[in-house]
Task: structure prediction
Amino acid sequence: MAHGSGEGVWRSAPKCGDGNCIEVLVSAGHVFVRDSVDPDGNALRFEAGAWAGFVDLLKRRSLGE
Result:
């Protein structure tokens, strides 16, 4: 699911039906993460490379590597 904003598009997982998820925005070498329940609250900012490493680690763990 995508939500427009002036800075980009916030995205959440398709399986996020109840709205209790995180949302992610990719913009200018950074990844921002926020709570979908509080979209006007603070967002965490990560360097794009650090976020990619985190996602890769999660994928490898879910595959049992």
